[in-house]
């Protein structure tokens, strides 16, 4: 086997968290015109570093190939995401008093869904977004956005222009960077002397406890705990002074950081309390990770039994959503159109395409009313409440919702 090294501390990776086999890039949706073309699959094997306990997948595809000019995820199509963004801006403005004299920088700003809330308050904003088609949507909406990846080079350019950030935002991006040292070092360069950083990312402990293995895919290079992120930030001269446990993505963390020498922010007791809970939960225990792999395979068998039994009983099952996490789940379980006839998605950027690997067709949500399925499998389970409200019509013909993880759950 080729030697693999930790992307933070460079130690050799030898311990498996879970091997999900080979899978296509999770956001590489297939056009109908290319249905006969070959599709690249890459190893999807998660490791844990025995030195720093950063969980990670090796870099199988260049970031330019993943976050390309045809990136399919637009944040503005989720009511839950929009609500979360507005609440975040309300909270940050109240706590840190950002105003017209402040500079806000968001990394991986997508279509401007979050920054528009600051702009409406008269606070200067700048987005950094590598996917051109998504960035163009933000620019059309009036959000200043630069099409580039963030790291030391980009940060130094911003500093040279005098654009130092009083707040650097990174929601669901820290896990998406192949060179995490370059990324964190860049934030320190771009941060004003008294500025703060907030990062939101799925919490590793939630993934381990709730068997959310579908959050593992190639553009998620790292799977993060407070324990590992503290070490990475400290290595680059940044101090985590507060942390919150928040709901998105099935359970995430929001960390607050500043320059290590900034005495403005004392470290809140919540940081130590969560760090202690992680250690008690086995974040630095190899046995904890080995147990996770066993539960992943058991979860796979349970979902396949449900779908097979539904088919044998002549029940129809279709999907709701075409999220990246759903593509990991479907490819790992080998679920194709014989078990899941189609899926629907509210985003027009996905409709009319096929899911990568499984080639399950994606339709607009109106398809549900046409075919009246017995079960609706919710692939973006993290927003199941939003989906169940949107698709309550299925109850009219006795349809039921199904959530695949952590255990198969049928909901009326």
Automatic annotation (TrEMBL):
SUPFAM superfamilies: S-adenosyl-L-methionine-dependent methyltransferases (SSF53335). Residues 6-67 form the Methyltransferase putative zinc binding domain. It comes from the Bacteria. InterPro entries: Methyltransf_Zn-bd_dom_put, Methyltransf_Zn-bd_dom_put_sf, MeTrfase_14, SAM-dependent_MTases_sf. Residues 249-406 form the C-methyltransferase domain. This is Class I SAM-dependent methyltransferase. It comes from Rhizobium leucaenae. The lineage of its organism: Bacteria, Pseudomonadati, Pseudomonadota, Alphaproteobacteria, Hyphomicrobiales.
